[in-house]
């Protein structure tokens, strides 16, 4: 199943985590790439909201369960590529017990991510065997 709603949003110790099986991460990336000014996606544990604006990628938590993403297309592409990349790494991994992940966060003198961004970790995992 490639339903982005299988993605999960969680927060702990001031860090945001967006996790899910590879197909769900890819489905979310496809949805976020749609050419709309605003996209809202309900996921387990919250909502992912993306707004196309001018400027670098900004990641923030609004309220207790809304992951807010904003920025120009070329900066939002960082996040979309990370979703696809983590999914690809997980699918090609021999050891599925290790969860592939990528950090999206501001580093000094980074023109692509806003200094107001909070750290986000994208994690690919596998559903429990039935």
Description of the structure:
There is one protein chain. A hairpin with a 3-residue loop joins β5 (58-62) and β6 (66-71). The chain is α/β, with parallel strands linked by helices and 130 residues long. The longest helix is centred in the middle third of the chain and has 20 residues, at 73-92. It is globular and about 40 Å long. A four-stranded mixed sheet has the order 1-2-8-7. Strands 3-4-6-5 form a four-stranded mixed sheet. α1 packs antiparallel against α2. The model has no long low-confidence stretch (mean pLDDT 91). Helix content is 25%, strand content 35%.
What would the keywords be for this entry?
alpha/beta; four-stranded mixed beta sheet; about 130 residues; 8 strands; globular; 2 helices
Summarize the SSE layout with pairings.
Elements: E1 8-12, E2 15-20, H1 22-33, E3 38-43, E4 46-52, E5 58-62, E6 66-71, H2 73-92, E7 100-104, E8 120-124
Parallel strand pairs: 2-8, 4-6
Antiparallel strand pairs: 1-2, 3-4, 5-6, 7-8
Helix pairs in contact: 1-2
């Amino acid at each position: 199943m490639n339903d982005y709603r299988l993605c999960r949003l969680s927060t702990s110790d001031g860090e945001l985590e967006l996790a899910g099986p590879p197909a769900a991460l890819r489905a979310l990336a496809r949805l976020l790439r749609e050419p709309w000014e605003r996209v809202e996606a309900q996921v387990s544990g919250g909502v992912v909201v993306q707004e196309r604006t001018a400027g670098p990628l900004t990641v923030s938590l609004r309220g207790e369960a809304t992951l807010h993403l904003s920025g120009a297309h070329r900066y939002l592409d960082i996040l979309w590529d990370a979703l696809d990349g983590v999914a690809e790494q997980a699918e090609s991994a021999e050891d599925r017990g290790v969860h592939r992940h990528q950090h999206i966060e501001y580093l000094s003198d980074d023109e692509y991510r806003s200094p107001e961004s909070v750290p986000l970790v994208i994690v690919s995992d596998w559903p429990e065997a039935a």
